[in-house]
Amino acid sequence: MTRSSIRTAVLVGAAALAAVAAILYTSSDASTLGGLVLLAAVAAAGLVAVYLFLAQRDRHREIEEELAGQATFLEALIESMHQIAAGGGPRPVLEHARVEAERLFDARAQLLEPDERPAASPNGYQGILVPLRVRDEHVGSLHLVRVRPFARADIARAAVLADFAARESENARLLEEAKIREAERARLSEQIVTAEQEERRRLALFLHDGPVQSMSGLALMLDSVSESVAPDALPVMEKALRQHRQTIRALRDLSFNLEPVVLRDQGFGPAVKGLAEQLGLEHKIQIDVEVDAAETLGEKAQAALYQIIREATSGSIRRGPPTRMSIVATGRPDGGLQAEVIDDAPGERRRATFDELAERARTLNATFEVDQRDDDSGTTVRVTLPPYVAQ
Question: CA triplet 311, 312, 314: central angle to 5 degrees?
Answer without folding.
Answer: 60
